[in-house]
Amino acid sequence: MKFIIREMKPSDGSKVLAIFGEGIEGGNATFDRDVPSLEAWDSKFFKCCRFVAEDQNNNVAGWAAIQPVSKRDCFTGVAEVSIYISNAAQGQGLGLDLLRRLVEESEAHGYWTLQAGIFPENVASIKIHEKLGFRTVGIRQRLAQMKGVWRDVLLMERRSEIVGN
User: Fold this and answer.
1) How many Å from the N-terminal Cα to the C-terminal Cα in the chain?
2) What are 115's strand-pairing partners?
3) The pLDDT value given to residue 36
4) Residues 6 or more apart in contact with residue 6 via CB below 8 angstroms
5) Of 93, 91, 104, 164, which Cα lies nearest the Cα of 133?
6) Exposure string (b/e) for 113-152, b if CB count within 10 Å is 16 or more?
């Protein structure tokens, strides 16, 4: 199946949240326990650099967006990456395509560092980040509990070679 990567539209909100819900249920995407309201989701992420993967039937199969890591002015070029793929579309290369577009557009908007916090068990996500130049910074051991189990988070980052040099 072929997909296009396009900018997210307001009408994509319910589909984006449904895919986020699948990530919560899967247990290896986020510490979040509940799907936020669209308003809460919208206020969390930057208005730029929001993308969806859409199939030829106009079904949204995945999304990517960035959010601030700090409100301090010195970190205005640093953002955290989120990528979610629907269960039905996993394994088709969408994560790599979405992340590639996110990297390109984030640089066009002046972001010099992208970071990602990934559960070590999410091997597919780690591999796509590595393919696009993210490096492992370290492991935040026993960062938080999920359903009574302590979870580690792998911290990865990508420094732009064209922005902020």
Assistant:
1) 39
2) 80, 157
3) 95
4) 51, 52, 54
5) 104
6) bbbbebbeebeebbebbeeeebeeeeeeeeeeeeeeeebe
CA distances from 164 to 34, 53, 92, 109 (A): 37, 29, 33, 12
Q: Which is nearest to 138 in space by CA: 127, 154, 122, 119?
A: 154
Instruction: Look at residue 133 and give its three-state secondary structure.
Output: coil
Give per-residue pLDDT as tens, 60-110: 999 999 999 999 999 999 999 999 999 999 999 999 999 999 999 999 999
Residue tagged 């999304």 (tokens): 63
pLDDT in the model for residue 113: 97
Structure-block tokens of residue 146: 């999920």
Instruction: Calculate what percentage of the chain has a pLDDT beyond 90.
Output: 94
β-strand partners of 155: 117, 138
- Mind listing the domains of the chain with CATH numbers? 3-114 (3.40.630.30)
